[in-house]
Amino acid sequence: MSRNITIKEGAFVISDAHYSTTRPELLEFVKAIHSKELQPTQLLLMGDIFDALFGSIEHTYKDNYEMIALLKEIADEIEVIYFEGNHDFNLQAVFDNMKIYPIQKQPVLANYQDKKVYLAHGDFDGKIGYKIYTALIRNPFMLKLLKPIDNLFNHFILNFVDQHLMKKDDCKELGWFEQFIENRFKDRFECDYFIEGHFHQNKTLQVDGICYVNLAAFACNQRYFIVRSLQNNTILEEKQFSKGI
Asked: Which are the contacts of 240, defined by CB distance < 8 A and separation ≥ 6?
């Protein structure tokens, strides 16, 4: 497990926005934070914030320049913690003023008041085939090899990835999800809360003495969460952003 972090009262938690030219809703939300219309005390980005942003592949910056610039300016004023997802990784070179947690360091043990909280994007414990895949696509040597090939053939690899991602249904309910989580968490973690995204289910479950929270995907309905304490109960207050789109 990785180092501790402290979650602040009033922190905003955002997951799976999958920001792209076809999903621009997050840009207005981030602009509202940048202009201080919205005022989080801290920003927790739970992964897949971008639909495709790979730190060592400059071509993936092309449609994301404005978002990257705004987030970096926000990080100069408040703490921004970024949990890399399977759509956005190798990000330390992009966001040098943020705390970045790659998949190898997730879940991250955090504290909020007297509560122990694990935070993750959600794909840290995939099956062996998935782990090999995620290791390969993040490997600097592999990326160094693929980058000139992609450039030589007019970005056919990245265009193929884009077309594949556009066909996915990111907002469907998973009928097997609750049983999957019960099996996955049995006798595994000691904490009060486990918070992650990745599955886009927007569900809270009591599992083996843990309050498990699977966050809503911002991409589906522009929902985000604010960390609140209410009568000694820690909660994620669900919000929906609707401005401008």
From this structure: 221, 222, 223, 224
Instruction: Using a cut of 0.70, tell me whether the model's pTM lies above it.
Output: yes
- Cβ contacts of residue 177 below 8 Å, gap of 6+? 199, 201, 203, 214
Quick one: pLDDT at residue 134? 79
CA pair distance 67, 199, nearest whole angstrom: 23
Residue with tokens 């914030």: 49
The type of residue at 179 is Q
DSSP code for 19: B
C-alpha 156/C-alpha 28 separation (Å) is 30
pLDDT one-digit tens code per residue, 219-229: 999 999 999 98
Q: What is the Cα–Cα distance from 12 to 24, expressed in whole angstroms?
A: 19
| Alpha carbons 59 and 61: distance in angstroms, whole number | 5
Q: Which pLDDT score is estimated for 30?
A: 97
pLDDT in tens, 1-60: 444 799 999 999 999 999 998 888 999 999 999 999 999 999 999 999 999 899 888 888
Task: Say what the pLDDT of residue 166 is.
Answer: 65
Q: Looking at the chain, which runs of residues are DSSP E strands?
A: 5-6, 12-14, 42-45, 53-54, 79-83, 88-89, 99-101, 108-112, 115-120, 193-196, 203-207, 210-214, 223-230, 233-240
Pairing of strands 12-14, 193-196: unpaired
